[in-house]
Amino acid sequence: MNTDRAVGGVPVSPFDSLAACAQRILADVHSGKGGFAIAINAEKVVTCNSDRNVQETIERATLRYPDGAGVVVAMRLKGVRSTRVAGADLWLEVLRQARGQNLSIALLGAKPEVLDATRRRIEADFPEITVSIARNGYDGMRDLDALAQELAARKPDLVFVALGSPKQELLIERLRLVHPAGFYMGLGGSFDIYAGVKKRAPLWMQRRGLEWLFRFLSEPSRAPRETKRLKFLALLVLGRL
Length: 241
Fold this sequence. Notes:
Elements: E1 5-7, E2 10-12, H1 18-31, E3 35-40, H2 42-48, H3 52-60, E4 63-66, H4 69-77, H5 87-97, E5 104-109, H6 112-125, E6 130-135, H7 144-154, E7 158-162, H8 167-178, E8 183-186, H9 190-194, H10 203-207, H11 211-218, H12 223-237
Parallel strand pairs: 3-4, 3-8, 5-6, 5-7, 7-8
Antiparallel strand pairs: 1-2
Helix pairs in contact: 1-5, 2-12
């Protein structure tokens, strides 16, 4: 079993590979106990230092995996080696490893056209997977009580929520109350990437931990969020993580 290592007070599980993390998730899915996976990056670590609600939500997750390159570096400085597990890759790796298992999933979030494209592609790429619920992040989120009732009735094995952080994590906590046996993952903008609406960084940038730079150059509006990355870097250099 993986031993969590705290980064800035946030416990994070190390993994040797993306596949190993996906296997852990599927084991929890098949156990019937459900779960809640959160991607941990520099922004979340810094946010936890100032937002107690976010910190408590992250602490209640059953799996916290190292999504950010900075988090991986911080873990290594503490003597724990781990690969970076990108959330945009992880959910698809879970589906790939679930081939032949006839699982049901829920897709929540994104624009209506993005959600439709995501659903169509999943049904083409993973025909054995049943998309039991698909609700966009606009009209589909207006009646959360109806969504909760639908989730409780259909009981999907996996629930993918693409609303951005911390909105997606707060919704997941609410939905787990009515369907605790499901396994939940917050995916941010992963549907947009899978649907082909947005591009990911080139592989060479991903491998060098520069995916954040690609996102910043593609979306300059992210600038205020990057101040948290700079603060994380300063804490890392000063040895305060």
